[in-house]
Undecaprenyl-diphosphatase (Marinactinospora thermotolerans DSM 45154), 222 residues
Amino acid sequence: MPESFVADLVGLSTDWYLAVAALAEQSPPWLRLTAEIGTEAGLALFAALFLAAWWRARARGARDMALALLAPCATVAVYLVSETVKSVLHQQRPCHVLTDVMTIAQCPPAGDWSFPSNHAAITAAAAAAVIVAWRRLAAVALPLAVLMGFSRVFVGVHYPHDVMVGFLLGVLLAPLLVLLLAPLLARLVQRLRERPLPVPLLADALGGRRALGGHRVSSAGR
């Protein structure tokens, strides 16, 4: 059953993959190089977004800090789910099946399965989770996640359906995990902040407000 399901998906998206591969082959060298580097290096940009959300949360309430801390944790959880699905379905990468197609990136070794795309799952999860923590980051996080997902097909290492399913896993699971665990972690953060010697990484909401000029920061303008 899983094998036939994967085979049907491969059949549906092979034409899309070939169309994108042809586009990549005709693209200028600078674009191919940018895609090859960016498809991996782009993950570091999400680490920067996590850091920005955490830094902002240091001067805000316990719930904001909980959301910021849970964003990378939820991303790791989604990656583990994606990797588990890969290990069950065993779909070969297109660059192993369609060997006459030029790819920008080197094809991963056999056994490094294709479905779903871990990169797409990670970037979608990171984007969704960090937006829950700080909505204003949506303008950066969402386009970046979509671009990262497309790059996996553009460089030749994934079918379109690998990316789409990975994206769905990230977008659906990461916010759910963050919102389910936020109340529990927020209580813990509040207790740690109220200790005589507070945890520096969690900062102090009251101290943060004083640093901002004594005005209480509203959580409405995420």
In short: Residues 2-205 form a domain with the Vanadium-containing Chloroperoxidase; domain 1 fold (CATH 1.20.144). DSSP finds eight helices and no strands in the chain. The longest helix spans residues 160-193.
